[in-house]
């Protein structure tokens, strides 16, 4: 049986999931907009516009999924697992009021 998470940990996971979805939607929409704009205002021939939009949608969807996975992979592990490689670790000197190790 695994230990339950605190409310703060559950909230942090919820925020990370929402950040992953929103940033993924932004990246996907931006890539679709960039690629799709070539079909609207660029030199793409009329018969190619449908497939061009389909390809733009596919690229946008792939980039959305890639961004969501990229953000969610950096979520912290279970309690007690230690820091992951992307975590920032603060070093405390042990002397209150000191800002550097050589103070």
A few lines on this structure:
The protein has helices spanning 7-41, 49-73. The chain is an all-alpha fold and 103 residues long.
Secondary-structure map with pairings?
Blueprint: H1 7-41, H2 49-73
- Uncertain runs: none
Number of helices, counting only DSSP H or I runs of 4 residues or more: 2
Q: Which percent range fits the helix content?
A: 55-70%
| Shape category | elongated
Radius of gyration based on Cα positions: 22 Å
- Biggest sheet record: none
Quantity of strands, as a count: 0
The assigned structural class equals mainly alpha
The helix/strand series, from N terminus to C terminus, equals HH
**If you average the pLDDT, what whole number results?**
81
End-to-end CA span: 47 Å
Beta-strand level of the residues, as a percent range? Answer: under 5%
